[in-house]
Amino acid sequence: xxxxxxxxxxxxxxxxxxxxxxxxxxxxxxxxxxxxxxxxxxxxxxxxxxxxxxxxxxxxxxxxxxxxxxxxxxxxxxxxxxxxxxxxxxxxxxxxxxxxxxxxxxxxxxxxxxxxxxxxxxxxxxxxxxxxxxxxxxxxxxxxxxxxxxxxxxxxxxxxxxxxxxxxxxxxxxxxxxxxxxxxxxxxxxxxxxxxxxxxxxxxxxxxxxxxxxxxxxxxxxxxxxxxxxxxxxxxxxxxxxxxxxxxxxxxxxxxxxxxxxxxxxxxxxxxxxxxxxxxxxxxxxxxxxxxxxxxxxxxxxxxxxxxxxxxxxxxxxxxxxxxxxxxxxxxxxxxxxxxxxxxxxxxxxxxxxxxxxxxxxxxxxxx
Length: 368
Known about the structure:
Blueprint: E1 7-15, H1 21-33, E2 38-46, E3 58-60, H2 72-88, E4 92-96, H3 100-106, E5 114-117, H4 131-135, E6 142-145, H5 148-158, E7 164-166, E8 187-192, H6 201-212, E9 220-223, H7 229-238, E10 244-247, H8 252-260, E11 262-267, H9 276-283, E12 288-291, H10 296-300, E13 306-309, H11 314-325, H12 329-347, H13 349-363
Parallel strand pairs: 1-2, 1-4, 2-3, 4-5, 5-6, 6-7, 8-9, 8-11, 9-10, 11-12, 12-13
Helix pairs in contact: 2-3, 6-7, 6-11, 9-12, 12-13
């Protein structure tokens, strides 16, 4: 380790604030830079609006950005990253996601230096995972996983037998000063995710229809990217239109404002990995209803601020929403405090710094 520089290399196909891998890459680079490390981020596609010029680290893009059909940008950037890794001799090389650029690097002579961070739930036939990267995964130094549940998927889906280091996901520190509820709320339940069937949106609308017959002033806000038309139609057909409203939240600031003004977050997905939206809710002290998929039970199962139900189950979702809506004030405040404490344990600035330090100086250390 003493022969290595004080630099860290991060390689990703995307960088920015749009969400998903964009944000994960940005957060990782920023957290490493705050540890006084010299960070170089190699990213194929960069959200230009998120780059200010004072990030505190270098962002390198491919010299050729055309030819996506032949994967030229990723191939070019992989070669640039390989040369950078060999020249900088960094203390660690993070590759964000099992992407095409990850597959190219795993086929290179720096493969045994890569810490490959799995961002998905590692399930079979995953559209976000490049097959070449998955097939070559055994060539990396270690895989990084956010949870033991995902470890199992990595082992079974990719037939990976190497070492796995633990690095849970985190989110921006919004520096919330209080976890007490606001004086009033704009929504009782907020759905904040892609508007797609596999997010359990149809189950949510049907549960709302049932519950609105008993609770006349119920307010459910459905927000996020995607076409709202089929879900508006369903709400009209099943009698939920009075209780359900739809909106688009074009910026993260808009989304966080909506989150801060709701009583509960509801995420009835069919499948998830390690959903950041639950961490965002926890930071704002918003209790959640979520399905028993991915790492949700592992991360939030013992937290009274999270109600976990079976996926694809309208009756269970209806019962959960009803019990939370009628929750006593004292119990609601307790739920807010306990889920915020979970955020502090998982995603506070101190927790992130400690986990990254362990990854860099314990998990990466070798006998050599």
